[in-house]
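Final paragraph of the annual report: two paired records, presented back to back.
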Amino acid sequence: MTNPDEVAHHYHSGHLLKRIADGCAALNLSPPIAHDALAPVDEFHIGGRLATEPFVKALDLSSDSRVVDFGCGLGGPARYVAAATGAHVTGIDLTAEFVETGRALTEWTGLSDRVQLIEGSVLDLPLEAASMDAAYMIHVGMNIADKVGIAQEAKRVLKPDGVFAIYDVMQVGEGHMDYPAPWASSSDQSALAPPETYEAALTSVGFELSDRIDRTAFAKQFFADLAAAQSRVDGPPPLGLHLIMGDDTALKVKHMVRNIEGGLIAPIEIHARLPV
């Protein structure tokens, strides 16, 4: 069982907003800032915006949609959803620094009227029952052992026919896992599970499964392209995930890639829907 305080500590770095502001200044960016310009730092998952776009498109959202983001981080996907579809998004995250920084970034991008970020647990959402049209979770379940609890909260807040989409790093093989990784400093903070565990949790509370998509090939190409791009420059860019992951970013990414190449983990999407 993962400890929420330890998980929050893993993601807390201190002065994150200042580092992002300094990065923006180095790129001559000042508010108002286009949400796309922040994508290198606020899309904290495998593939970044390249993964977010098709994932969100599959949700089939409109400007009338009300959406909840389970574990919103800095709110990058939430801002993308709001800007791309006009939907109203409520993001919940355990890490106070992420929420505070994300609120500032939302103001910088002029999306505060459609994006609300709240500090809290996705196992106890501060939302009314049957108040949401759609829900999604991106690279969060690896820190939460209670997959049934996640499914139960999604069911509670969604309206009938509501969709719940998950894009997580999931366990697909047995063997030694290398840490630290982007989501955990050690195995004690990790709650990796196979796709079947997620699917069983969803169906146990009443969801109907609609799709499972293995993004392994996409991930391998993404990391290969990233390595090639980094080899052509001297040092990290002004805005990037190193601002979140810290001095051991390279090691965390190396371990992530090694674990994927070794067939131990894979980025996988699961889409489910509540019956009418």
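The closing record of the year follows.
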Amino acid sequence: MGRLKLWASIFLILAVCVAGVWALWNFELRWRPKTITRHQAEISALLQASGWVSGGGKGAKLYVLAPHACAGCDGLRADLLPGLRDRGVDTRVIALAPVDANGQAQSTPAERATVAQLWIARDRGLLDRWEKAPAAGWTAPGVPAADGDMGRTAIVESGRQVVARLTPLLKDNGVRFAYPILVWWNGKGEMRACACQAPQTWRFVRREVGG
């Protein structure tokens, strides 16, 4: 009987430890952003040279790479970015048009037109309208078409090339590329990044850039 109690106690302790480790991973570790320790200069140069549009803040810089539609994009624009902007965070949005797949366009003409215009004009008003509009209903009113315009089409392609170059650089730092990608610097000056689709990741962003 004593031996049975001993084994039962050991099993209970192990079960508690396993549950604790699982809870730590499930509620904390799996959502933590990665610290970028490799290719920092190249990543920073790619971001700075892109056609980002600032939200107007003068504080910490947060780069956001996203197409109009992606998992987590609507929540990010509705719940995370407005609060950060209110705190003075410089949200630098890099609008992108997804690359074609199997000969099929993964973006709409309106999306491509808007991406080109945002890169050219860095128009905060256009960005606001773009972020608030449902992707399926966006018609890019008043925005010049990119299709048929070699210059604007080249700008759309430039954004895709930025993604192509960033993907392996981020992967080397443990960040799997999936929209939206967020890159920022924390209070220690460390470059940080995440594929921030899940709202569980946003608390880290708020903590590190939003005060």
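The helical segments are 2-27, 40-49, 73-86, 109-121, 124-132, 150-171, 202-209. This concludes the annual technical report; the extension proposal builds directly on these records.
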